Every structure is written in structure tokens, then in C-alpha cells.
Amino acid sequence: MQALNGIYDPCCRERDISIVDMGLVRAVEIVGSQAKVDLMLTSGWCPFASRVLSDVRDAVEAVPGISQVSVEVTWDQPWTMDRLSESARAKLQFLPEPAKVADRDRYIAAYANVRRKAGGKGGQAG
After folding, report:
1. C-alpha separations of 53 from 32, 62, 71, 85 in Å
2. What is the pTM of this model?
3. Structural domains of the chain ordered from first start
């Protein structure tokens, strides 16, 4: 697992969230010098899946004593955000928890103003 802490899904590299923190590593099994890693994907359409699989294989092959690595994607269970580590969850949180917003209307107005200045629709529907 330590070797996998340095592997990133390209979508989360900028936030420093490894595949371990994303909960993509379902199982690691080592028997003698052979390792098997079962991974989950956030989506079956992930355009970076082959890269992640290669990165995992390379990282585990670099572990002393490992001579053969099998990396497989499991499809019997969907990935959900419940699999995120606490640190990943904190890094992905963009808005404060509702209970921490003292004045909801003021917060929404400030957010709409920021969006308007950035060229967005200011929080309006449509």
C-alpha cells in the first residue's frame, strides 16, 4: 500500500489525492514474490484507466522482493464517494458545511457576486 500512495489518477493529482485516498485500491495480495492488486475505477469510462493500471504495476514491481505483478479492475461493486479517505474528502470539499454558514442569504449573494465577476450566471438557473 505504501508503494501505491504515490500513484495518482490524473484528475486528482493537482489536489494531491492518491488512488489509495480515493479508495480505488480494493485489495492487495502478496504470495511469495507475486503481487495481485485489485482496483476500482470511479467510472467505467475513465480515459486514464490504462495509465493508472501501468503506474500501479510499475510501482509494485519496484518493491523489493516482488518479481511479478497482476493488476485487475474489479467491476462487481461500483465506486462511491464513501470510499474517500478523510483527507481526500477535505481536499475535495469546495463549499463549507451548511451548519457553518451563519447567514445563508449573505453567503449565497456573495457567491453569486463572485460568479458574476468571473463571467458566470451569478447562480441563476438556466
Report:
1. 22, 14, 7, 21
2. 0.70
3. 3-93 (3.30.300.130), 95-126 (no CATH)
